[in-house]
Automatic annotation (TrEMBL):
HAMAP family: DNA_YbaB_EbfC. Belongs to the YbaB/EbfC family. It is found in: Cytoplasm, Nucleoid. This is Nucleoid-associated protein DGQ38_10265. GO terms for cellular component: bacterial nucleoid; cytosol. It comes from the Bacteria.
Length: 108
């Protein structure tokens, strides 16, 4: 009984380590997004951190338009990053977990 419990605890620890490694790796996965006309380009990580913003000079002349472009383009990039983040972390957590009846339903 205690052997099973220790094995289960080790599996949980492995899953936690795997999730932490995945979180670190997601900081290096870059997602590039741009406005439909290419005047604004952003790069974010899969950990949802903005890495760069490239703005065409013509957008600097219209503050309201620039703000709209930033909101739309950043939201698209963050949405893609969130999708990747959730899939990767869910898979990392599920892979290392012990086989406990009903636990698999948590990761669907």
């Amino acid at each position: 009984m205690f052997g099973d419990m220790m094995g289960m605890m080790n599996k949980i620890k492995e899953a936690q380590d795997n999730v932490e490694k995945t979180k670190e790796r997601l900081k290096t996965v870059l997602i590039d997004e741009q406005s439909s006309d290419g005047l604004l380009k952003v790069t974010v990580t899969a950990a949802r951190e903005v890495k760069s913003i490239d703005i065409a000079d013509e957008l600097l002349e219209d503050k309201e338009q620039l703000e709209d472009y930033l909101v739309l383009t950043l939201n698209k990039a963050i949405s893609k990053a969130s999708d990747i983040n959730e899939k990767e972390l869910g898979a990392a957590a599920k892979d290392g977990m012990p086989d406990i009846p009903g636990l698999g339903d948590m990761f669907k």
